[in-house]
């Protein structure tokens, strides 16, 4: 019959292996949490991107279209290299830009002389656009829709 020392040694070995198991399990859970925190797209499927549009509400210039689709980026200005070219002396060559970031749209004034207005207020910094926002650049007024 085994004596008490045998059972104490057995109990000690079981505790040691149990502690090692729980340490490895804790490390596993921690790495799993970090991985899912760094890769949120794996947790949830991102909704399919819906394109947004700018509709021309009021214009004293010769814009050829009344609707402009916004993909990843849309530049507005008087320069021919812009996506929306507005021949208006109140508009800078590179006036404003709209970017899509994580399926949200951000408008930024590119230090234009006559500024960009969002919902009647001076656009001072990058701002997220909401559906129905009114953007005024020079004599042209746009409405942002998603």
TrEMBL record:
InterPro entries: Cell_Proc_Reg/RNA_Proc, FHA_dom, SMAD_FHA_dom_sf. Keywords: Membrane, Transmembrane, Transmembrane helix. SMART domains: FHA (SM00240). CDD domains: FHA. Pfam families: FHA. The chain crosses the membrane at residues 6-31. SUPFAM superfamilies: SMAD/FHA domain. Residues 74-123 form the FHA domain. This is FHA domain-containing protein. It comes from Propionispira arboris.
């Amino acid at each position: 019959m085994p004596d008490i020392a045998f059972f104490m040694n057995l109990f000690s070995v079981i505790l040691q292996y149990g502690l090692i198991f729980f340490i490895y399990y804790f490390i596993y859970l921690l790495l799993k949490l970090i991985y899912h925190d760094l890769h949120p797209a794996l947790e949830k499927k991102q909704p399919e991107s819906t394109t947004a549009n700018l509709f021309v509400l009021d214009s004293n210039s010769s814009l050829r279209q009344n609707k402009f689709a916004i993909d990843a980026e849309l530049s507005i200005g008087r320069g021919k290299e812009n996506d929306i070219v507005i021949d208006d002396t109140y508009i800078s060559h590179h006036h404003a830009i709209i970017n899509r970031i994580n399926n949200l749209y951000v408008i930024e004034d590119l230090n234009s002389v006559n500024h960009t207005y969002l919902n009647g207020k001076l656009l001072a910094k990058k701002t997220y656009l909401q559906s129905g926002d009114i953007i005024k650049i020079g004599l042209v007024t746009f409405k942002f829709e998603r």
